[in-house]
């Protein structure tokens, strides 16, 4: 691929499993800080694609702020205020908002879910594997993490399908199979004040507000009870809007990313059966394998920042107010950091992936939970099957934001 063929603003270029990586390869080699035109959909953005540069931008919140938004959509100050979540907050307030739920996501706290996770995994696998041929995304990858989230939110199991649908409709706002209203369509202007311009956000808000009403003043320890009953350390209480946006972030981030990471990991094991056999023979390799799963899957392609001042990178001048996009997925294939980065290797040494961020104030709050979910899933799944192979062509989400798998038809042979 030539440099002039790269177009990271075109969601259609992300529908196959090759084109995005070819574009990233060209940019890392020839233009590590590259201007991308967006045509009628935006003012354009700088792409940062090397591992070290992504880490540097992510850490430097003084120069590259999240407060102007973290995806490519351009919003005015009024919209930014209305739609601001933990993701679009920097500095002391960001730290305070994280601390409300941070204790619930520490490795020690998350370890307490392992027994529940193994039981949940067993039930999920029992139901799916008995079918022989099924959609891995629908029957396993989507079903599993959402049930964990439902437990943490303390909501009925019967509500999990609604949570899945909301996540699809909100995150999949550029995919006609998912979106109620496509981003950039004329109709989306009616929803410009909602997260991802998705009318599904209104349903999430209504659901969260009812939970808040029920839990306020109680002694529950679930995530909603923490949000409504715990006072932030800076003395500034969460407004109703703050709660809405925090709750929606939990529903979406707590489901979509792990689901896609599990799906991509399964596809990688299907494509690399020798690696699956190694894990069956030696389950002690699983913690290292999970890190390779995370590097390989890169379930979020990018996050965006905005330059607060003029700055130079690789001889390129970035102006104040320019959008700067960190392509985490590209950093996870950077040959400067990873030997043979397109080899799926469950024993890869020193796996310095940046899937969760690295040393950033925005380091993923749910990283310990995602690691545990993935470890338990594959520890339970692999011994049950002697063979798993594709039963059809995988389909990917039409998005340059989430690296998602919509459908993964498989056929299994039980062990």
Which secondary structure elements does this structure contain, and how are they paired or packed?
Layout: H1 19-30, E1 33-36, E2 45-48, H2 51-59, E3 64-65, H3 77-83, H4 91-102, H5 107-111, H6 114-129, E4 133-135, H7 136-141, H8 143-153, H9 160-171, H10 200-215, H11 223-229, H12 240-253, H13 256-271, H14 273-281, H15 286-297, E5 302-307, E6 311-313, E7 316-318, E8 323-327, H16 328-331, H17 367-381, E9 385-390, E10 395-396, E11 405-407, E12 409-414
Parallel strand pairs: 2-8
Antiparallel strand pairs: 1-2, 3-5, 4-12, 5-8, 6-7, 9-12, 10-11
Structural class: alpha+beta
Low-confidence stretches: none
The total strand number stands at 12
Oligomeric status of the shown chains?
Answer: single chain
Helix residue percentage: 40-55%
First-residue to last-residue Cα separation: 43 Å
Number of helices, counting only DSSP H or I runs of 4 residues or more: 17
The coarse silhouette is globular
Strand content: 5-15%
Question: Could you characterize what this model shows?
Answer:
It is a single chain. With 415 residues, the chain is α+β, with helices and mostly antiparallel strands. It contains 17 helices and twelve strands. It has helices at 19-30, 51-59, 77-83, 91-102, 107-111, 114-129, 136-141, 143-153, 160-171, 200-215, 223-229, 240-253, 256-271, 273-281, 286-297, 328-331, 367-381, and strands at residues 33-36, 45-48, 64-65, 133-135, 302-307, 311-313, 316-318, 323-327, 385-390, 395-396, 405-407, 409-414. A five-stranded mixed beta sheet has the order 1-2-8-5-3, sandwiched between helices. A hairpin with a 2-residue loop joins strand 6 and strand 7 (316-318). Helix 10 (200-215) packs across helix 12 (240-253) and helix 13 packs across helix 14 (273-281). The mean pLDDT is 96.
């Amino acid at each position: 691929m030539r440099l002039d063929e790269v177009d990271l603003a075109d969601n259609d270029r992300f529908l196959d499993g090759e084109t995005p990586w070819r574009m990233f390869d060209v940019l890392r080699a020839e233009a590590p800080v590259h201007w991308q035109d967006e045509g009628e959909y935006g003012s354009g953005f700088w792409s940062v694609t090397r591992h070290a540069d992504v880490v540097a931008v992510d850490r430097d919140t003084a120069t590259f702020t999240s407060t102007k938004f973290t995806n490519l959509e351009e919003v005015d100050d009024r919209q930014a205020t209305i739609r601001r979540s933990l993701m679009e907050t920097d500095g002391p307030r960001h730290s305070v908002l994280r601390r409300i739920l941070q204790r619930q996501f520490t490795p020690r706290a998350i370890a307490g879910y392992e027994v529940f996770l193994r039981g949940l995994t067993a039930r999920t696998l029992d139901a799916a594997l008995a079918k022989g041929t099924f959609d891995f995304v629908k029957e396993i990858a989507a079903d599993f993490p959402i049930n964990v989230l439902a437990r943490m939110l303390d909501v009925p199991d019967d509500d999990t399908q609604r949570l899945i649908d909301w996540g699809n409709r909100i995150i999949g706002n550029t995919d006609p199979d998912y979106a109620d209203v496509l981003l950039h369509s004329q109709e989306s202007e009616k929803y410009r004040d909602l997260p991802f311009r998705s009318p599904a956000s209104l349903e999430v808000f209504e659901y969260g507000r009812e939970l808040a009403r029920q839990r306020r003043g109680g002694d529950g320890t679930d995530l909603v009870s923490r949000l409504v009953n715990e006072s932030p350390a800076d003395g500034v209480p969460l407004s109703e809007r703050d709660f809405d946006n925090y709750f929606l972030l939990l529903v979406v981030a707590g489901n979509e990313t792990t689901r896609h990471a599990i799906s991509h990991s399964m596809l990688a094991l299907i494509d690399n059966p020798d690696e699956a056999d190694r894990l069956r023979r030696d389950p002690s390799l699983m913690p290292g394998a999970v890190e390779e799963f995370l590097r390989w899957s890169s379930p979020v392609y990018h996050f965006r920042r905005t330059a607060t001042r003029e700055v130079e990178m690789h001889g390129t001048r970035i102006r104040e107010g320019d959008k700067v996009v960190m392509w985490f997925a590209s950093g996870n294939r950077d040959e400067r950091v990873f030997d043979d980065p397109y080899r799926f290797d469950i024993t890869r040494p020193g796996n310095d992936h940046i899937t969760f961020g690295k040393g950033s104030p925005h380091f993923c709050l749910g990283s310990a939970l995602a690691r545990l979910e993935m470890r338990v899933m594959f520890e339970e799944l692999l011994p049950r099957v002697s063979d798993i192979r594709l039963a059809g062509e995988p389909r990917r989400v039409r998005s340059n934001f989430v690296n998602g798998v919509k459908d993964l038809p498989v056929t299994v042979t039980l062990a």
